[in-house]
Amino acid sequence: MATATAQIAAEVATRTAREYLRVSKGKGRTARSITDQHSGNLASELEYGPWTGEPYKDTGSASKYATKARSDFDKLMDDLATGAFGKPGDVLVLWEISRLAREMGVGNRIIKLCEVGGYLIHVTSDERQPYDPRNYNDYDLLNRGILDAEKEARRLSARTQRGVNSAAGEGRPHGKIPFGYAREYEVMDGRPRCVRQYPGPGDGKLIAELFVRAAGVRDNRMGDESVALLYSNPVGDDALPEAVYAIAQEWAERGLVNASGKPFHDGNLREMLTRPAYAGLRKHKDTLIPVQWEGYEPIVSREVFSRVQRLFADPSRRTYLDTGVQHVLTTTLRCNPCDGPITVRCRKAGVPGYECAKKGCVRVDKAEVDRILIGDLTAVDPGTGEAKPKLGVILAYLSAPHRVARLRKRPAGGPEEQATRSELAGLRTELEELEAAPQPKTARARIQRTADMEELEQDIAVLENKLAKLTTPAPLADLLPADPEADLIAWWQAADVHRQRAVAALLLVPDALGQVRITPSQGWRDPVPDRLKWVTAA
Question: What are phi and psi of 79, to 5 degrees?
């Protein structure tokens, strides 16, 4: 008996316990927050420890709505699955269960891995002995903790989204302050609130100059007296639109730099010229909000902004300004070495080629790639002189009428769609009844009523998203010719470049024809087909 007791004591003394430390944000309080968790865990060690072993550390949300990966979390998962975490009886130490996961599926998987590996889970904030997932009661308590964390994450997401949607509906600015603007804040309800967004004293004039020169107008307000006069064109009424590339070059010569302290390049300027924010307008979910918030002071008038957008959209414009919308494949082709985007550049006596826009890793003849992927639609028979177009990969695939008909087919409502609609209608009715009910008398009842409404709203949003996916038509439905038997070549030649680009982007993906990646040349004059790598889904 004494020997067994001594053996147990020795095992406890040498037992490894590794912490998983996580904070949601990485600015300012990151180190302190992780330190606070670690300090709490060490205090708990005096009663439930000892804790030894290298901790796992992460900065980022554990919510299902998070967009950034957690590297140490992935390592923890791998270690638990492979046994590298430690031996049976070792402990995973958490400050609270929500530090681990706020999604039931992920949390339950971790608990199961600990169960299989014989690992214990200690939650410092629970102030109790480590949980043993092999015990049915401990297993249930851990899962309940994850479920509560997920519910809270859903509620917080719904509340946040409601606030964002409300601000967007009023046309309020959101997110990072755009270059050229400044903001004024006031403390309301204990939090700083933006009450004014106005042109910055120096950078605002640069933005006004950019729009005036790109639009070829007299000044940044074009008769709109509600907009402050920030820049007047020296040329006056005889001004012509200037190429963005030329403006970027001239700004570089003047030593002008962006917020990062680097010279502006034409890509920066083109992106700024398409921002509705500079006309005092808010864009939300790719939709322009027509309302202008009273605290939003535009840098340029709507007429100046609209004039620039019309110039950008004009297909007859042949300046450097819109070379990015003249080519069908630049948004779809990728550089194989660096995964960068492909652009069109002219070198060697003006011959255009597809080139890596990120690092210049690859370059290939544009005409030959277009011939392979789109075709030579103006080819003629050398013997007879008659038109004899040659279809490339995209048009050859679409040349079969049955494929066009299938790609245009819209989903038919099935049992799952009907069930989703029925459930959605029930939840909406329940929410309407709750909203119409008399206001509860007690504070506790009012809080519970608000919580119930938020939960219903979140459930409704989930079902609406599900229904949208069930009823969304095939992406190519509105792009392809309405008649599958139509003249494919005539349809393609009549389509504008935006439609052609959309078709190419939807077909040249791993799940369809395959993604096309350009590889480096391995020798003198490698055949272009050998330079194209096709990546398909497994």
Answer: -65, -40
The pair of three-digit structure tokens given for residue 509, joined into one six-digit string: 């993906």
Spatial separation of the C-alpha atoms in residues 123 and 49, rounded to whole Å: 12
Task: Annotate 156-194 with b (16+ C-beta within 10 A) or e (fewer).
Answer: ebbeeeeeeeebbeebbbeeeebbbbeeeeeeeeeeeeb
The DSSP secondary-structure symbol of 438 reads: P
pLDDT recorded at residue 160: 54
The Cα–Cα gap between 379 and 389 comes to 5
Q: If you search the block for the tokens 């080819």, which residue do you land on?
A: 379
Question: What is the spatial distance between Cα 373 and Cα 398, in angstroms, rounded to a whole number?
Answer: 12
Q: Is 118 exposed, middle or buried (0-12, 13-18, 19+ CB in 10 A)?
A: middle
- Tell me which residue has tokens 């002008």: 256
Contact 371, 528 (CB under 8 A): no
- What are the tens digits of pLDDT across the range 38-72? 666 766 666 666 666 678 877 654 444 444 445 77
Helix, strand, or coil here: 416? helix
Give the Cα separation of 224 and 228 in Å (integer).
9
DSSP for 312-342 reads: HH-TT--SGGGGGGS-SSTTT-EETTT--BE
**230: pLDDT confidence band, cut at 50, 70 and 90?**
very high
Q: If we measure between CA atoms, which residue out of 60, 48, 64 comes closest to residue 20?
A: 60
Contact 53, 86 (CB under 8 A): yes
User: Which helix H or strand E contains 5, and what residues bound it?
Assistant: helix 2-14
Going by DSSP bridges, is the β-strand pair 390-391/181-188 parallel, antiparallel, or unpaired?
Answer: unpaired
